[in-house]
Amino acid sequence: MSFLAVDWALEHSPVNDPYERLLLTVLARKANSDGTDAYPSRNSLAMAALCDKSTVTRRLKRLEARGIIREGDQRAAFRIPKPLRPKVYDILIPFSFFSPEQLAKVNEDRADRGLGPLTAEDRPPLAPAPPRRPRVDKGVKRSAGPDVSGGASSLPGASSTPHPDSTGSQAFDPGASSTGVLEVLSGGASSTPTLSSNSVHSSSGPSAEQPAVKKRKKTGTADPRTAPERFGESGEPAAEDAQVQRIVAAWIDARKAAGFGPHRRATALRDFTAAATTLVRQGRPVNWLMAVATWMGTEQPSWVGLGEATKAQYAGAPAEPGFRSTWQPTPRSFCGDCDEGWVYRHVNGMETADRCACTSAAQLVPTST
Questions:
Q1: Looking at the predicted structure, is the pLDDT value of residue 209 above 80?
Q2: Which residue of 58, 129, 229, 323 pairs with 14 in a disulfide if CB–CB is 3.0 to 4.6 A?
Q3: What are the E-state strand segments in the chain?
Q4: CA distances from 69 to 27, 57, 65, 105, 301 (A)
Q5: With bands split at pLDDT 50, 70 and 90, how would you rate the model's confidence at 358?
Q6: Nearest-CA neighbor of 38 among 68, 81, 82?
Q7: What was the pLDDT predicted at 1?
Q8: With contact defined as beta carbons under 8 Å apart, do 94 and 125 qualify?
Q9: Where are the alpha helices (DSSP H) in the chain?
C-alpha cells in the first residue's frame, strides 16, 4: 500500500462523485507509490464502495474516459488464475503532485521494478472535475403527505365536520368510502351514493351480498378429557392412568426418602411417566413396576428411563415375577482353603464367578453346571 497514492485519491483527485472517490481510494491502497499495478477484484471494489458491481463498472469507465486511470500491465496479476484474474489499472497521479523528495523515492521504487523515472510528459495535469448536475426537483417545495394519524379530514373529499349520532359518537356515513371519493352508477347521476368494493363495512354484521366466512374446523389432537382410548364415557380417568400414577408416586416417594428430591433434568418426570404408561399398556405387572421404580429412585437416582431399569437385574433391580432373569445363581463351589466359596452365575449366556476371600482370579476354575 502506498500512502502517497491514498493521500492523492482522498484529498486531491478531481472527482465529485462519492463512488468515484471510494473506488479511487481502494485502487490506491492496492497500487505502488507511483499509482501503477492496482488490481482489486470487482467484488472487493463493490464491497468497499457499498454498491453493486454494475455501478463499479460504470464508474471505472467514467474515470478511464476522463484520463484518471488506464489499463496497466496485465502481467502484474499473473499469479492469479486466469478465470479469476482481475484487470490491472494504473492511477495517473500528476507529476506535479510529488515533491522532490517524494519523486526521488518513487523513481527509486520504479528502478527496482525495471521502469524508468517519471516525467511531466508521462503524467500531465488532470482536468478538473465536471460540475455536478443539479437535482430535477431542486427548489420545488414538497407537498405535505396525507394525514395517516386517523383523522378523516385529511382524506380528499371527506367532510371536516363530524356527524354525531344520538349517542354523541361519530356515526357511519354511508356516502363515504375508504378512498374518500363517492362512486356514481354508470347509468348517470344518482341521488344515493354507493360504496366501492374497498369501502368500510358496517359493524352490524355480514349482509346478503357479503356472506359470513365459515370458520374452518380445527384438526389435530383430540381433547384428552374425551379421548376414548384413555377415558370412559363418564369422563373419569381410565384404570391405566391410576396405575401409572401409582408407579410415578412410588418413584417420587423413593427419591424423597433417600434424600435426593426432584430430578435435575427438566423433562425427567415427563419421560418417566411416558415409559410407565408404555409398560402398563404392555400388560406388565404394576406391583413389580412399582418395586422397580422404588429401587430406581433409591439406588439409581440419576436414571430416568423405567424401561431400562426393568432390565437392570445385573445391578440389583427386582426381577419380573414368572420371568426367568438373565442373572441366575447356580450351585456353590468351595475353594478348599477356606469355608467360603463362590457362586457361578450366567450373565446373558456367559459364565462368571464371585471370588472368595482367599482366592485370586487366576486360581478360579469355572465348572459347568
A1: no
A2: 129
A3: 69-71, 89-91, 327-334, 341-347, 350-353
A4: 10, 13, 8, 22, 77
A5: low
A6: 68
A7: 65
A8: yes
A9: 3-7, 18-30, 42-49, 53-65, 100-112, 239-257, 268-281, 286-299, 306-309
Q: How far is it, in rounded angstroms, from Cα 166 to Cα 220?
A: 48
**Cα–Cα dist 158/160, whole Å:** 6
Place of cell 427548489: 139
Residues, the chain: 369
How far is residue 230's CA from residue 82's CA, in Å, rounded to a whole number? 72
| List of residues 6+ apart from 227 with CB closer than 8 A | none
In angstroms, rounded to a whole number, what is the distance separating the alpha carbons of residues 34 and 111?
Answer: 12
Distance CA 323, CA 303 (A): 23
Q: Which residues pair with 346 in a beta bridge?
A: 328, 351
Residue 111 main-chain phi, psi, to 5 deg = -65, -35
Q: Which range is most confident: 106-120, 188-202, 227-241? A: 106-120
Unique residue bearing C-alpha cell 380445527: 218
Nearest CA among 180, 297, 304, 289 for reference residue 244: 289
Q: Kindly list the distances between the CA atom of residue 174 and the CA atoms of 104, 192, 309, in Å, as whole numbers in the listed order.
A: 87, 9, 74
Q: Which of 152, 200, 205, 146 is nearest to 175 (CA)?
A: 200
